[in-house]
Structure formats: C-alpha cells, structure tokens
Design goal:
Blueprint lengths: L9 E3 L4 E5 L5 H8 L4 E4 L4 E5 L2 H9 L4 H11 L6 H11 L5 E6 L2 E6 L2 H8 L2 H4 L2 E6 L2 E4 L4 H10 L5 E2 L27 H11 L8 E5 L6 H12 L3 E5 L2 H14 L7 E4 L9 E5 H4 L3 H4 L9 E5 L6 H7 L6 E6 L9 H8 L2 E4 L2 H6 L5 E9 L6 H6 L2 H9 L3 H12 L5 E4 L3 H11 L3 E2 L5 H12 L5 E4 L14 E4 L7 H9 L10 E9 L3 H9 L1 H5 L4 E5 L8
Length: 557
C-alpha cells in the first residue's frame, strides 16, 4: 500500500471503476469530490471502489459539475495517468445532458435539439418518436404537453436526458412567512446549508429551478428545507410522505415554525380527509384508489414535496409523470433505490440539485458524531446443521434470527445503560421475543397510530429507555434523543435501509453530541456478505464500521 503526501490516492481504471486508498492523506478530500459524480460499489478496509455511470454524470452535470471538472478532479487525485477511454466516456456521457431541451414556444410545448443530427436520431428512435407530434423546424418538435413526463423517460432511455425548461402553470398563491422564533419561544434560524439548498432549488424562480432532489442526512432538517422552499414560492403545497406519523410531524413543524395556522394545514389520511392550502398525505393513501388520487387535481398546487423520495412507490411514479406542470421537490437521505428506479426520480421529479457530505455536517455539529460497529456473533450450535442444508434465503433467516444475538444485545444494553436505545429488526417473531424478554414496548406496522405516538412521546420524555421497532423505523420518525441504535436483523443487502436506520440517531444531541450504531451479524454465514453490502452507502459518507467479536469484554471501550 502506497501512502504519501506527495502521491495521489486514486487509481482510475479503463472499466470506469475508481479505486480510492483510505489511508492516504488526500482520502477525505477525494471522497467528497467523488460523491458528486460517482457511485460507491464496495468498501473494504483499505481500498474503496467507485463507478462512473451515465446517471451519476448526468446528476453531476445538472448540479453544475461539468465533464471537464470531473476530469480535472480525477487527474488531481490520481496516482497514474487516467486511461483515455475513461476521459472519452466522461466527455461523451456528461455532455449529453441538456443537448435536448423542453421549452414553451408560443404557448406550446416543444422539444428542441442542439443540432439536426440529434433531431434525426430521435425521430428514428421508436420509444421517443411516438411522443413527437410534428416537426416545427430542423431541430424542433411539437410535443403533447400531457406527455411531458413520458417523453423525458423515453429520452433518458435514448441516452439524451432532457433539460426541462418548460416552466410551470400558474398556481394558487399562499402568503406566509417563516417565524423568527418557534411557538415554544426558541429562536428559529435556517442553517447555512438549508438556506443554500432552498435557494438552489428555487433558482430565483427561473425555469431551471423548481424541480429536483435535495440530498441531506436524516436529522439534518430536510423538513426545514421543504418549508424554506415553500416560503420562497408562496404557493399552495401538497406534501407526500411515508406514514401518518410523518404526516403529523410535518403539520406540527409547519405550525411551530411558520405563520401558517391549523386552519391552513390539513391531514389527508385514513383517519382524516382534510384538503387545505397545505395538505400532507402518505404515498400509501395516494396510491390506494382513484378517489384519493383525485386529491392531486383538487387544488391548484404550486409545489409538490416528496418526502423520503427514495421510497416513492411505482403507482405514485406513474401519477408523477402527469405532474410536470407543477414544481416538484424531492427530499431524501439517499438516492439509492433497491428497485433501480433512480432514473425515474431523475426524469419525473428532477435531478439532484444539492448535497452536503454527512461528515461535513457532523464536523460542524449539525448532526451527531456516530460510531459504527459490526458485532460478529457465532451461530448457535443447535442451528449449524439446519443452516448447512438450507437454501440461500432460508440461510439468511436462520443467521438473522440467531439466538446468540440476544446475548450480544444484552451486553450492549448494559454498556449503554441510561441512554435512549432503539432495537431495530426485520422479523416480527424475533422482535416479539426480544421485546418480551426485555419487557420493552414493541412497535410494528400493526401498532395503532395513537399507541405509536404515545410510546414515542414516552421515549422522548425518558420514561421508556428502550423501544423495539420493526421496519417502521426505516421511515421518518422524530426521536431526537435516540442515541443508540442496535440493528438485530435487516432486509438482505439494502443500503437504503442502512442509511435510514442510522438516520434515526443522527439528530444533534445536547452535551457530547455522540451516538452509536450497531449491526449484529452472524459470523461465517451469508449475513456477512449482505451486511458488507448494506454498509456501502455509509462508508461512502465516511462512516467506517469497526468489527468486534461478541465474546469480547467489554464490547466497546
């Protein structure tokens, strides 16, 4: 391993992979640069692997990172000469973004190409041609405005991601302002990155703004960014989020930190059907029936906010294709989607507009400083033969529900006595048993919303030190005092889920501002490889996992 102040930390390879040395003095600077235009593939101890893709370069281009800057950064950090084929791919892919543009011309939607050759190519590309109504000139086509989203999807398949400059229809106005002090009396001031995120999204009201995704870690105040965007636009807004708990958190935040009143903010859920100038609902409700989908057309919404946009389900994607005349803001901690629909987020909601490395926010005290550990646990002896003869899926479940994990869990609870602990898992039977053994409350998807809210409040108040939670913890829940998360089992290799679960403990804490994240993994089983994949996203953000054995005393120093 070469490590020197005078030598680069990257090896750029002709297959578009990039190797990053983690013990190099330039590591952190290079990692933060790569996050803007490359995707992490794997992250063992000493060498992290990234990949350049079309979508990563198109997101970079839309955020103002030009192909020439990508090449310049790679050369600046590289140990060796960069292969020319990589330079060619960066230039060819990067420059394709914006070579076709959607515009309004004389009140009609048109597609305008950079030159007649691109126009001819698109006219002869089947998936694009069906949306081209007529030629206007050598480089311009008339488009049915109803298919604005559909043609954007077709264009990205044709490797010509469109820059959408067609603007938005007039919407119902809504006058309000952000408070200078919350209703509790505490000062309320936007953090610098929150202000910048809202300004980048708004883009001074120009057509280049008003659609796109803001990527910030859980606990960093993405809801505040959404409110700041609303305040800039002064328009009626529909907020889509993951669950009724998140709906009510949005309502509470809006009333606490803006001049909006309870009469202006509505909950559209299974329990209430309020449609007001600002309405908050869930993806599940919106995708449930045509009756609920009419909510989209019930008012002249000027902005639709997609909270936790990485969870956006397919039925809502389809509806989103019809919503291109409305401003669209996606909020997320990660653009990773396990279903591979990142390109649909790009086309239908918009490209990534703003992102701050998690470690930068941690350094400035905006989120907690987190220590991540993978605790290796031996497979229970009585399960070894069952594991040996099981298929891969059943092997995973046997490893995930390994009873020896409970011993490690007890050690961790003892060592973190007095702290606010979340125990998070996948399998309800396993979680039920743990909750009973610990005499701790269990929250699952079947727990009534009123009961969830009650338990969460007792946890916030310190009356309950430990809560056992299922996948409901993957989504927006506001538990600012939670400072220990113990992942007992997870959804195979889901990077998205790992990021969300870490996010439950990222909110800044009074005093030492520290938190601990543990993943319990059964040694020498398929769970190890799935855990390594889960940790990829967090490693990209600068969170290395320390591996410790469960029989160590104590588990942590």
């Amino acid at each position: 391993m070469i490590s020197s102040e005078n030598k680069g930390c990257l090896i750029v390879q002709s297959d578009l992979t990039i190797l990053l040395e983690t013990d190099n003095i330039l590591y952190e600077e290079a990692r933060d640069s790569l996050a803007g235009f490359a995707e992490m593939v794997k992250s063992p101890e000493y060498i992290h692997t990234y990949k350049l893709t079309q979508l990563s370069l198109w997101n970079a281009a839309s955020a103002g990172i030009s192909p020439s800057r990508v090449i310049e950064d790679l050369r600046r950090f590289s140990k060796h000469e960069m292969p020319q084929i990589v330079v060619n791919h960066i230039l060819n892919w990067g420059k394709r973004y914006g070579r076709v543009r959607l515009l309004i011309d004389n009140g009609k939607l048109v597609l305008r190409c950079d030159d007649k050759y691109i126009a001819a190519e698109l006219e002869n590309t089947k998936q694009v041609a069906k949306y081209l109504l007529a030629r206007i000139d050598d480089v311009t086509f008339a488009i049915d405005i109803a298919y604005r989203g559909h043609i954007k999807q077709a264009l990205i398949l044709a490797e010509y991601p469109a820059e959408d400059l067609a603007g938005y229809r007039d919407a119902a106005s809504l006058s309000f302002e952000l408070r200078k002090a919350s209703l509790s009396g505490l000062p309320f001031v936007l953090r610098p990155y929150q202000t910048e995120a809202a300004e980048v999204f708004h883009a001074d009201g120009k057509a280049r703004g008003g659609h796109g995704v803001i990527v910030l870690p859980c606990g960093s105040g993405k809801t505040i960014v959404g409110m700041a965007a609303m305040a800039k636009l002064q328009t009626e807004t529909l907020v889509l989020t993951t669950a009724i708990t998140a709906v009510r958190q949005w309502i509470a935040e809006l009333i606490d930190k803006t001049s909006l009143t309870a009469e202006q903010v509505g909950e559209y859920s299974g329990e209430k059907k309020e449609i007001k100038p600002v309405t908050i609902t869930t993806y599940q409700i919106l995708g449930a029936s045509e009756q609920h989908r009419k909510l989209i057309d019930s008012r002249e919404w000027g902005l639709i906010i997609y909270d936790e946009v990485h969870t956006l389900p397919a039925p809502v994607f389809r509806m989103t294709a019809e919503l291109q005349s409305k401003r669209r803001l996606g909020l997320t901690a990660t653009l990773i989607r396990e279903d591979g629909l990142q390109s649909d987020v790009f086309t239908l909601i918009g490209p990534k507009r703003f992102e701050v490395p998690w470690k930068v926010l941690e350094k400035n005290g905006y989120i907690a400083k987190v220590e991540c550990y993978e605790v290796r646990v031996a497979l229970d002896e009585c399960l070894r033969m069952d594991y040996a003869v099981a298929d891969k899926r059943q092997k995973f479940r046997i490893a995930a529900e390994n009873p020896q994990k409970f011993c490690a869990l007890q050690k961790l609870l003892k060592e973190h006595a007095g702290r606010h602990v979340l125990i998070i898992g996948l399998y309800i039977s396993q979680l039920t048993e743990i909750a009973e053994l610990l005499a701790a409350p269990l929250i699952t998807g079947k727990t009534k919303n009123s009961k969830r809210d009650e338990l969460y409040q007792h946890f916030r108040d310190g009356e309950i030190p430990v809560i056992v939670v299922s996948k409901v913890a993957n989504y927006a829940i506001d538990l600012p005092d939670a400072n220990v998360a113990i992942e007992i089992s997870g959804t195979f290799g889901s990077r998205q889920e790992e990021a969300q679960r870490l996010g439950r403990i990222l909110r800044p804490k009074p005093g030492e501002n520290r938190a601990w994240f543990y993943t319990l993994v059964t040694s020498d089983t398929v769970e190890e490889s799935f855990a390594a994949h889960r940790q990829l996203f967090l490693a990209e953000q600068g969170y290395p996992y320390s591996v410790i054995e469960s029989d160590r005393e104590p588990l942590i120093n």
